[in-house]
Amino acid sequence: MTAPSDLPPARPGPRAVAWPGVPLLVALALWAYAMRHTDVSRLDDYGLVSALHPTFWAGLAVLTTGFWFTVRDARRPGAWSAAYVLGLLVMERATQAVLYPTPLYAWAWKHEAVIDHLLSAGGLQSADQVGDMAVYDQWPGFFAAQAALQRLLGVDSAAMFMAWWPLVSSLMLLLPLLLIYRTFTEDRRLIWTAVWLFYVANWVGQDYFSPQSVAYALHVGVLAVVLRRFGRSAVRRGRPRQAVWTVVITVMIVAIVISHQLTPGMLAVCLLALCLSRRYRDWVPLVMIVVIFLAWCLTAALPFLSAAMPEMIRSIGDVGANVETGYGATPTGTGAIATSWAARLLSGSVLLLAAVGVLRQPVLRHRARPLLLVAAAPLPMFAASSYGSEMIFRVLLFMLPGAAFFAAAALLPKVRTLAADATAQETGNGRATGPATARRWAIGTWVPLAALLGGTLVFVPAYSGKDRINYFPPQEVALVRQLFDQAPGGSLVVAANRNYPDAYASYGSIDHYWFLDDARSHVDKIVRDPAATLADDMAGVERPARAYFLLTQGQLANSEMNGQLDKAQLDRIRTSVAASPRFRLVAENGAGWLYVLKQSGGAER
Question: 274-293 in b/e burial notation, b at 16+ Cβ within 10 A?
Fold first, then answer.
């Protein structure tokens, strides 16, 4: 198979070698300028998209263009392509950490609360002790590792570093991706373009501070080892370190199994798909993941699975649950809808490019068939479970390593075997000159660049278009922390939804009720008569515990943009509570309000 890396390398002059550094430095300079001139204090329904300074978009365009003209030239050292990819990760994954003074995502704050509880409790706990949160104690790998890291760094909370986790978790994927792609090609253009497309298409948002982020990196790492060290050629050569690699993937599999519920299933179907091909008939990795996963499910995770299994069995084959949205999950408003369509457009485009690459590159289709199997293997999981209506996003995520490779192949010149290349040269097809060659050069250069640039720019709204929901300003963090600092054990916190920082703080001693999770009939009752209904819901709390009502900016944004209650309805609830003699205002600021239900009998604090 011919590729630029198969040809004798040319010796470009010093200027030609250093040229790729110019657009890279310009792009980073524009990004740095944009970071200093972007105001995130007033986000609208388009999230970070409309807040970003125009120089950010200019920098991203310069970076993408510079990468394309660098990577397509085989004479350029591969280090320049790596530098551009690192620049992309900085602009994609570090922008939010630089701009926002507090970490994003309510789920990240939830995981921080789990780590704090693990440290304070001193061990794992059961459902009798912490209720539904016990599921995290049944898959404690990530949280135990983070607790150890927190102690090692000497920080009080994971919130000190979790804002940078998207960049860290993305960097963890770089080496295994390179190993996977180098297994099937030596063409640096294809390898680095595939890496670029992988990061651009990975808008799903599972790179935040979560067990999924680490489990996914380990998943890709296991695939890299299996594809490189467990193939037929590796076994035939009798590699002396085969046992070492078996130990390595065993450690990674154990880490995956004890950290996340879904990833072991995805890894199992990928390894099964590989075993069905003649090139990978070593069943050891598949047997290991199945045995270790079953052993964990039948021991540590059994309490959760015993309760959840009936519903999981009923959901098998219910594909509709993966596409329906319903109350509380329907994007509402121009910004939310535009963001949703941007994400769909990006994923659809990459999958379409991958299909084109498979059809257009028969040599790669044969040589990289195992990668094609890995890309297709997660599809059956779409019918296995709805996974909280998120399975469609997880399937896309696990398809990406293979899909990005073939999408990159669609953007690059057609790969030919050595025999086909020799035949083309003999017939003169490889020496065509004139207008036809110029047209082919233009199409092969500018059309792929437009596709690459379009995908890179669309990533921004797909990834950060919901930052109005995901960002909690310092005032909101301060208000919530004031609540948990003063709430006695056994207290109840009532809120519209769980989209606020520290929503799970002290979950071992504080109860929570999010009324938008309740039946729609009860939500309608709250809207009709807010103060009286909420007071009745909160009345069962006895001294010294208290019942608090919390309404914050994050809850309002989540409710409005996901089609729950609109601003007028939420304002009606807050106004009714504020006017009710049964509630007392405890604290308020520009990001929210905190009320306490007055208790009958005795002095009211």
Answer: bbeeeebebeebbebbbebb
